[in-house]
Amino acid sequence: MATMKCILGLLALLAVSAWTEAGVVKKASSDKNDEAEEDLTVTEQLEKANNKLRTLTPVSAMVVCGLKPHGKVYIPYVIANHYSSQELDLIKRGINSFSYSTCIRFFPRTNQRDYLHIQSLDGCYSYVGRQGNDQTVSLSRQGCIYYGTVQHELLHALGFNHEQCRSDRDQHIRVLLQNVIKDQQYNFNKINTLNQGTPYDYDSVMHYGRLAFSKDNYNPTMVAVPNPNSVFGTARQMSQNDINRINLLYCRN
User: Fold this and answer.
1) Do 103 and 180 fall into the same domain?
2) Cα dist. 181→185, 206, 216, 217, 220 in Å?
3) Any idea which GO molecular function terms this record carries (predicted)?
4) 152 annotated as belonging to a binding site for a ligand
5) Stretch 96-101: mean pLDDT, rounded?
6) Tally of structural domains, the chain
7) Catalytic positions, please?
8) How big is the chain by its Cα radius of gyration, in Å?
9) pTM of the model
10) N or C: which end of the chain has fewer CB within 10 A?
């Protein structure tokens, strides 16, 4: 008999790459800059699509629930009908990637009350964790139709926040608020997160890049510590740590 598993807590885990897809998948919509954009990291894709990497203000606590028959967590979704067939195929590839390495099973909604509604709105964004009813995941046709970006926004919906907001982030990055656009400083708020014993991950698909929300797009808003030359925020897909965290949170009996 199916049981309901609910997990309380706001998470700021996450990492990058593990899925066998190599690099970022090319944007499906027709655009003169497609060839250049396929080389962008997830952070760069989000920044270009959202102009200022717009995200929703984090909530202090979330409830992430799903039916869990046979050890699988099933989450219903609906995709709006305004995507092209190519875009739809790419979005579904991102959705289905979770089933290859985790117990998460996204499935087309029938009559479920709570579900994810994937649609092309203003930018790439998602609420963090389950909100209930018709829950928006925005994947704009203008810059968000990438494999890694689909994974990024679905990870938010699963309850994961940005890596640089982790409770232990100060041991790994130094935030330079003086270089951050003033009304975007909340994106660097540290959160009391459940890290599940997993390491901080510079390669997380949820980690912003060094110039995220920079006032002049030249002076960095974050630097790595203790080694300032360490690279972060360059992910194009989920990392093994991202996958491990999903499995730790959802897939243990």
Assistant:
1) no
2) 7, 20, 9, 10, 11
3) metalloendopeptidase activity; zinc ion binding
4) yes
5) 96
6) 2
7) 153
8) 17
9) 0.77
10) N
